[in-house]
């Protein structure tokens, strides 16, 4: 593609982008409706203030043991993952401490990586109002109408 073709989209591309934005907005609205309907149905078993604060409990529910079991399993997996990462980083630190050439090349790699990230961040063109995704626009609309 030439630079001109990339900067000036065709009518079909503009229409497809507009349609994609509409479908995204529609999907977000449907999801918001489904969530609010679900919360309305479950108000008897769940306290909304507890959900927002992160402290919630199902009263007289068959699901409570299953949730507790899943939480415990997740904690065990997270602990195992942290221990594995710790041993990998310790082994890497020992290797770098003993090998000065590897230490120099890792420093060169980190400098190049940082320069690349700075280049990417600085070369990114600003997002125009037309190019905003439908999700961003919908979230702005929800925030503006939600009285927040």
Automatic annotation (TrEMBL):
Subcellular location: Golgi apparatus membrane
Keyword match Nucleus: no
Any one GO cellular component localisation term in the record: Golgi membrane
One GO process term, biological-process aspect: retrograde transport, vesicle recycling within Golgi
Keyword set, alphabetical order: Coiled coil, Golgi apparatus, Membrane, Transmembrane, Transmembrane helix
Main location as per UniProt: Golgi
Transmembrane stretches, start-end: 104-122
Superkingdom classification of source: Eukaryota
Record carries keyword Membrane: yes
Protein name as annotated: Golgin Putative 2
Species this protein is from: Actinidia rufa
């Amino acid at each position: 593609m030439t630079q001109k073709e990339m900067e000036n989209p065709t009518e079909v591309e503009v229409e497809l982008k507009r349609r994609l934005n509409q479908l995204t907005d529609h999907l977000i609205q449907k999801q918001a409706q489904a969530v609010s309907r679900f919360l309305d149905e479950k108000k008897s078993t769940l306290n909304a203030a507890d959900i927002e604060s992160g402290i919630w409990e199902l009263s007289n529910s068959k699901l409570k043991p299953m949730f507790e079991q899943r939480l415990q399993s997740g904690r065990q997996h997270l602990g195992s993952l942290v221990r594995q990462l710790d041993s990998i980083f310790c082994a890497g630190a020992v290797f770098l401490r003993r090998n000065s050439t590897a230490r120099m090349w890792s420093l060169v790699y980190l400098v190049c990586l940082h320069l690349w990230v700075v280049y990417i961040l600085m070369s990114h063109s600003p997002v125009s109002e037309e190019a905003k995704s439908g999700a961003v626009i919908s979230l702005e609309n929800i925030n503006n109408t939600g009285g927040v």
